[in-house]
Each structure stands twice: as structure tokens, then as C-alpha cells.
Design a protein that fits this description.
The protein has 112 residues and is of the alpha+beta class. Helix content is 28%, strand content 41%. Strands 1-2-3 form a three-stranded antiparallel beta sheet, with helices on one face. The relative contact order is 0.22.
Length: 112
């Protein structure tokens, strides 16, 4: 099993729009997958994917002041903007990397 951690804490914001300040419009996300399988040293296999996602700010309802935003809320917005299919693709790519670490299809060897 792989647990996916979405870090959406770094954002770009417009300083002021329509009387509201620090309007988040772009999210710098990092998704880290951590496997329940471990390597020879006992460390879990991990992989990450990094990207950005622009948010639609043209119709802001229920404005949340920046100092009240949480990673969970921004992750919710980011996932909605990416779409369920996009989120599934990101997490699938991470799973593929972890699978290749757990069961490599190629290794590098050196003759002594």
C-alpha cells in the first residue's frame, strides 16, 4: 500500500483583488508517495512528483483570508483544478516509480 501526501503550502498570490488581499492563484504542489514496503535498511520506498496548478480566481465565493488557509483546503482546491483523472495519473506515476524500486527491471553492476 502507498500513502500519498499532498503538500500545497507554497503558493503565488495576487496582493489585492476587489478589496481582498493575498488571493491564491497558483499552487506549487509536491506529492510524496510512501510505501508500506521497506528496503534492505528498513526505510520505506518513496517517490515524489512536483508541479504547479493555476486556480480559477474569476468567481471567488466564500473568500478565506490567507492567514486562515490550511494545506488541506489548498490541496482540495488543487485537486479539483487538476481533476480526478489528473490526480489519479499523478499518484499512478508515483506508484510506478515505487514499484520499479521494489522490483527493479534493470540494475547497474560493476566487474571487479
Amino acid at each position: 500500500m502507498i500513502n500519498y501526501n499532498w503538500n500545497c503550502k507554497t503558493v503565488d498570490a495576487y496582493p489585492q483583488v476587489d478589496g481582498n488581499t493575498n488571493i491564491v492563484y497558483n499552487v506549487h504542489w509536491i506529492v510524496t508517495g510512501v510505501s508500506d514496503q521497506v528496503d534492505a535498511e528498513g526505510n520505506p520506498y518513496t517517490a515524489k512528483n512536483i508541479g504547479t496548478q493555476v486556480l480559477n480566481t474569476s468567481d471567488i465565493t466564500d473568500f478565506i483570508p490567507f492567514d486562515q488557509l490550511t494545506n488541506e483546503k489548498i490541496t482540495e482546491w488543487t485537486k479539483a483544478a487538476i481533476s480526478n483523472e489528473g490526480v489519479a495519473n499523478i499518484e499512478s506515476n508515483i506508484k510506478s516509480v515505487i514499484d520499479s524500486l521494489v522490483t527493479p527491471t534493470s540494475v547497474t553492476l560493476e566487474i571487479q
